[in-house]
Amino acid sequence: MRMKPLIIGDLTVRVPIIQGGMGVGISRSNLAGAVAREGGIGIISTAQIGYDEPDFDNNQIETNLLAIKKHIDKAKEIAEGGIVGVNIMVATKQYERYVRAACEAGADVIISGAGLPISLPDMVKGCKVKIAPIVSSMRATSVILKMWDRKYHRTADFIVVEGPHAGGHLGFSKEELENIDEIDFDREIKEIVKYKRAFEEKYQTNIPVVAAGGIFDQNDIKHALELGANGVQIATRFVVTEECDASPEYKQAYLDAKEEDIRIVISPVGMPGRAIANGLLKKVGEGKLPIEKCFHCLSHCNPKEAPYCITKALINAVRGNIEEGLLFCGDNVYRLKEMTTVKAIFEELVF
Ligand SMILES: Cc1cc2nc3c(=O)[nH]c(=O)nc-3n(C[C@H](O)[C@H](O)[C@H](O)COP(=O)(O)O)c2cc1C
């Protein structure tokens, strides 16, 4: 068995590996550009992407919108013709403006999760960007494909199907994640692969399925392809590369993490996420951390009620303030043993 290129409309992705978007600041131009140069798709996370720009403290949204262009341009330069996209969470405050900024900056793809991107087709009208929802169930897939069909007379350019072993926000309940072995995610992928065929026929196109969550080695990729996926999305493994945009301390925290250090945390918007145990999680477990300033990140967050500020925690993390940071990770983080490069990961994974 050999990997086949991932065909997304008129885009041919030589290596069917997408590097998952990682916010805040973990996947920006450097990592995404390096992945794209190796023949995969490099994904920049737009979550508070301008966190280190001079005007960020005063005007987060405008600063982020400018930083989207800056990082897409830079990633494309590094990519030498490779494919660069963005991850924009549906839960982002002023989501539509982020989508427009990414379109105008020439993103090749937009991947959108943390909510269902119901109106995304409308927002990208007139732009040749490819769009993909992130889904975690057959039910969410059917809602989105039916909605896009009925309201916009179009379908997805590809679908990212993210399972319970992933990092970042997860599309499963805390109870489901506590009984993770009972989740039959293979079945979910197979059903989605079968389900999308009717939309492929109707729109005379291919809708590749990209499996995500816990993919670590060639065997995991082969397994996903055997289930009918056309490619994979991998995030955690790319953190401990020289090219990753996080601080050296963040990468070291990944290398130091043991299996028993991995926790499920509830983000201020009520969604579960996976992270490495540290001082911040301990404090959150003991009670609320007062929020002094709102950075306007997520539309459903109420700073008066939230248990902590997720932007502040994620910025602490990317900057290397490990004890006070939120260290999102996939559940195979403890298997990472050494720093590497994007090139070396591709050499290891491509077959
Ligand atoms: C540090 C980190 C941050 C992440 N941030 C985001 C994000 O901002 N938006 C999103 O949709 N997914 C996010 N994810 C999920 C990844 O894009 C990816 O789909 C998932 O982690 C894949 O599983 P893996 O990490 O086991 O390879 C994040 C993952 C990690 C590890």
Care to give the gist of this entry?
With 351 residues, this protein is an alpha/beta fold. The chain has helices at 29-37, 60-79, 95-104, 120-123, 138-152, 174-178, 185-195, 197-203, 218-226, 248-256, 279-286, 310-319, 342-349; strands at 6-8, 11-13, 17-19, 41-45, 83-87, 109-112, 130-135, 159-162, 168-169, 209-212, 231-234, 262-266, 272-276.
Explain the overall architecture:
The termini are close together. The mean pLDDT is 96. It is built from 13 helices and 13 strands. Helix 1 (29-37) packs parallel to helix 2 and helix 2 runs parallel beside helix 3 (95-104). It has an eight-stranded parallel β-barrel, surrounded by six helices. Strands 9-13-12 form a three-stranded antiparallel beta sheet. The chain has helices spanning 29-37, 60-79, 95-104, 120-123, 138-152, 174-178, 185-195, 197-203, 218-226, 248-256, 279-286, 310-319, 342-349, and strands at 6-8, 11-13, 17-19, 41-45, 83-87, 109-112, 130-135, 159-162, 168-169, 209-212, 231-234, 262-266, 272-276. It folds into two domains: 6-246 and 336-349, TIM Barrel (Alpha-Beta Barrel), CATH 3.20.20; 248-335, no CATH class. The chain is globular and about 55 Å long. Helix 2 (60-79) links the parallel strand 4 and strand 5. By secondary structure, it is an alpha/beta fold. It binds flavin mononucleotide. Flavin mononucleotide is lined by residues 20-23, 26, 45, 47, 87, 89, 113-114, 134, 162, 165-168, 212-215, 233-236, 328-330, 332.
